[in-house]
Q: What sequence folds into this?
RNA sequence: GUGCUAGUAGCUCAGCUGGAUAGAGCAACGGACUUCUAAUCCGUAGGUCGGGGGUUCGAAUCCCUUCUGGCACACCA
């Protein structure tokens, strides 16, 4: 594992060794080696790697950084035993630029050909048992664009974390209890009676206006008849809720499935309510003296934990709040053995984050183990106007419609492409009319082109992939090989920072380099040695693309 | 009002936790298919990194201040 990672570690280590040697030889006077950077310069002219170490040391050594750099480079050359660095230059204010050897780039490609579809995998996070909860949309309606964004980000993140060796459980929290369900039930009841001809029924104030629930009750009547009209309202509402939630959940599962997403656990909020978990949590808080009663409700002293105000746990009607249930739910996750809880929430929940962390501390669980990725909401444009998405008013574009119009691959890529922090403007008209401009096709096209070359070979490709190390001489070949080598670094970055968009960006960069290579280099009909070398390069590219597209949940078509 | 978050090319966004001349993609303009797929490639143009201070060899990046969006501040979830 870790071609580039190991190289970078080695280079940094060698600089430290060199400095130590300088200390021994009394060329340098410092006692501690400062934290220096090893970075990939933006401009290729400045080498494959650059370090700022001479500039950092110049302060300590009280010497001109360029003079110091000369000494450091000599020391480095003395300790370097790898042969991976071909040339070292001193530039600008005192940067030390390093150039990788051609031989090394060939090694990268050979390594990928050995690891194949495991290339990029490692064991970095093998100690982590992660519960990743996302989407968790209320089952009172259909999935909308915001949910779709969460689905794409969450699933991709789960895939990356698994590649890094973590054990990941994808979880969907079903809000099947509480006030909103009551409202939902009342709305269903009204629609049910209306469907059977009753007129002028008052619609509940916070009811659900979506047209879909009308369909639901009609479906119920078709299937089960109108017998419910004759039972008590309570019984009728309960039955309608049960029927409806089950129908909605099936629908949600179906469409998430079509989106390429399969959950490991579907966890019901009602389980938390019915299992005594909330009471247990309240007892813990009570024992710590963090609860008090006021105006008939039970409050949590969140002010003593640094929050602005206290929060209600148990309402004066005796029912627990969402917050109370959520504390119990997160406690439950820890109790199930997870050491990391990652939630993906809409940005409108950000006020909830700090409170939850404090609450975890209060019941004696880790606040640090709870991470929340906040996602800005999706703003939807249609006919040049912003559509306000709301379940209650029933104006939203569903995941179903999205899949029909742009397809799974484009939709998934589009949602993952951007940092969750930024608002996502989704123009439906653009998505429909210009879906071919979507970057995902660009990436897939690179894959299809490679497949096409391999199809045109006269012999099986394996016969060209001997163990001999390839050597690349053209800039574009080297760039492509180096980019392939970056994969593992990108995956680690994306996983550790919980930023899956980095993978989407990388995929695009890799595809760009491939297309450039494709238009300036031929593979078939080249002299035998060149042909072999290039075949190795494109097969390594193919594996890399397959791996990334797999993580993104985007298909890799052989033909387009 | 308080808190969170953002402000970079006409548009949508990167910028790797302080580095060298701030980068892509769309859109605009000009080129490239008798050769492995033109869903591609090459080139041109486009910038006071919201404004103002500060920290230092060096700032889009860190600190302060200010302006402008978005969101949150329920006995809703």
A:
């Amino acid at each position: 594992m870790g071609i580039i990672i190991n190289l970078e570690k080695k280079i940094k280590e060698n600089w430290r060794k060199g400095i130590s040697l300088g200390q021994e030889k009394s060329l340098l006077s410092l006692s501690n080696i400062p934290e220096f950077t090893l970075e990939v310069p933006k401009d290729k002219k400045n080498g494959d790697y650059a370090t700022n170490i001479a500039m950092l040391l110049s302060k300590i050594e009280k010497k001109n950084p360029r003079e110091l750099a000369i000494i450091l480079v000599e020391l480095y050359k003395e300790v370097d035993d790898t042969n991976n660095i071909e040339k070292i230059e001193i530039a600008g204010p005192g940067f030390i630029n390093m150039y990788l050897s051609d031989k090394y780039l060939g090694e990268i490609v050979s390594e990928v050909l050995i690891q194949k579809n495991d290339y990029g995998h490692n064991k970095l996070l093998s100690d982590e048992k992660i519960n990743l909860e996302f989407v968790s949309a209320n089952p009172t309606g259909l999935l909308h664009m915001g949910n779709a964004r969460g689905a794409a980000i969450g699933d991709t993140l789960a895939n990356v974390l698994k590649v890094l060796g973590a054990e990941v459980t994808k979880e969907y929290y079903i809000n099947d209890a509480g006030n909103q369900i009551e409202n939902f039930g009342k709305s269903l009841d009204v629609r049910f009676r209306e469907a059977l001809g009753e007129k002028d029924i008052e619609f509940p104030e916070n009811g659900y206006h979506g047209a879909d629930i009308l369909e639901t009750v009609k479906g119920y009547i078709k299937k089960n008849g109108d017998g419910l009209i004759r039972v008590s309202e309570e019984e009728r509402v309960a039955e309608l809720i049960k029927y409806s939630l089950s129908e909605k959940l099936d629908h949600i599962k179906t469409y998430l499935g079509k989106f390429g997403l399969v959950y490991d656990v579907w966890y019901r909020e009602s389980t938390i309510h019915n299992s005594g978990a909330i009471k247990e949590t309240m007892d813990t808080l009570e024992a710590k003296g963090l609860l008090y009663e006021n105006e008939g409700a039970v409050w949590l002293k969140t002010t003593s934990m640094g929050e602005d105000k206290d929060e209600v746990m148990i309402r004066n009607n005796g029912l627990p709040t969402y917050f109370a249930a959520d504390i119990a739910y997160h406690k439950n996750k820890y109790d199930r053995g997870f050491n990391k809880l990652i939630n993906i929430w809409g940005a409108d929940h950000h006020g909830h984050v700090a409170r939850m962390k404090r609450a975890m501390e209060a019941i004696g669980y880790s606040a640090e183990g709870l991470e929340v990725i906040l996602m800005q909401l999706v703003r939807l444009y249609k006919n040049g106007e912003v559509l306000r998405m709301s379940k209650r008013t029933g104006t939203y574009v569903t995941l179903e419609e999205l899949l029909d119009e742009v397809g799974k691959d484009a939709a998934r890529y589009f949602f993952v492409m951007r940092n969750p922090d930024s608002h996502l403007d989704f123009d439906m008209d653009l998505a429909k009319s210009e879906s071919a401009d979507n970057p995902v096709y660009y990436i897939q096209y690179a894959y299809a082109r490679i497949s096409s070359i391999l199809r045109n070979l006269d012999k099986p490709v394996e016969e060209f992939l001997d163990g001999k190390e390839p050597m690349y001489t053209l800039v574009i070949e080297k760039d492509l090989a180096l980019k392939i080598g970056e994969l593992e670094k990108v995956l680690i970055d994306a996983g550790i920072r919980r930023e899956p968009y980095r993978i989407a960006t990388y995929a695009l960069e890799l595809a760009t380099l491939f297309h450039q290579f494709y238009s300036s280099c031929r593979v078939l009909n080249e002299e035998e040695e060149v042909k072999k070398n290039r075949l190795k390069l494109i097969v390594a590219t193919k594996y890399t693309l397959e791996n990334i597209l797999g993580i993104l949940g985007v298909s890799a078509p052989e033909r387009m």
Q: What stands out?
A: Chain A has a mean pLDDT of 88. Chain A is about 50% helix and 15% strand.
